[in-house]
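User: Predict the structure for this protein chain, please.
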Amino acid sequence: MPSSRPNHIPTILQIVRSLKPSSILDLGTGFGKWGVLFREYTDIIASEHEPSRYGRENWRVRIDGVEGYTEYITPVHKYVYNELFQGDIRDVLPGLGKYDIVFLGDVIEHFEKADGVDLLLECTRHASTAVVVSTPATFVAQGAACSNDLEIHRSHWTERDFEGFGGKAAVVENDLLVACLPSPGVESPPISSMRPSPRGPLSLLKQIARRVVGA
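Assistant: Here is the predicted structure, written as structure tokens:
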């Protein structure tokens, strides 16, 4: 699907905000949710003290994306991303430059394991600060959702897989795995889970807001 479960949103945003990136590459943008969130919690949240940063012309963080399925691309992408590249990640990524953070949000499981390892290695070559990854903690069978063969789940990843890259990984709420692979000389931020309140989605959103703003 071009979307994913929301439970790991606060964990991802805490990691990203703690790394203070000036550039982010979002690989496999899907609907563009992460582009929106990264933009909101970099440039837009900064407009509280610098009102001019609310305007697109004054955004300071470069957020680019890569999407392999053109049917997913909407005006949302064209607004929140500085540049959107279309094509297979494996073909597009080698031609791109360096970014502080390279992000793979529920993407790595769509590759065969050997191809995924190669992709992670390529990501590390393009990340000045860290590669950040999310993926199901248990194997979830999925076919060609939305008539898109790229949506097929082809592999399962564990904490040990990412620790082999010198990173930190943890399972967060709802069986989602989050990993941070820091670049040499960069300390990985801690990865912690957030348990949703039994009072429901509104309470969860309030917790997300408190965690992110306080990061």
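Residues 194-204 have pLDDT under 50 and may be disordered.
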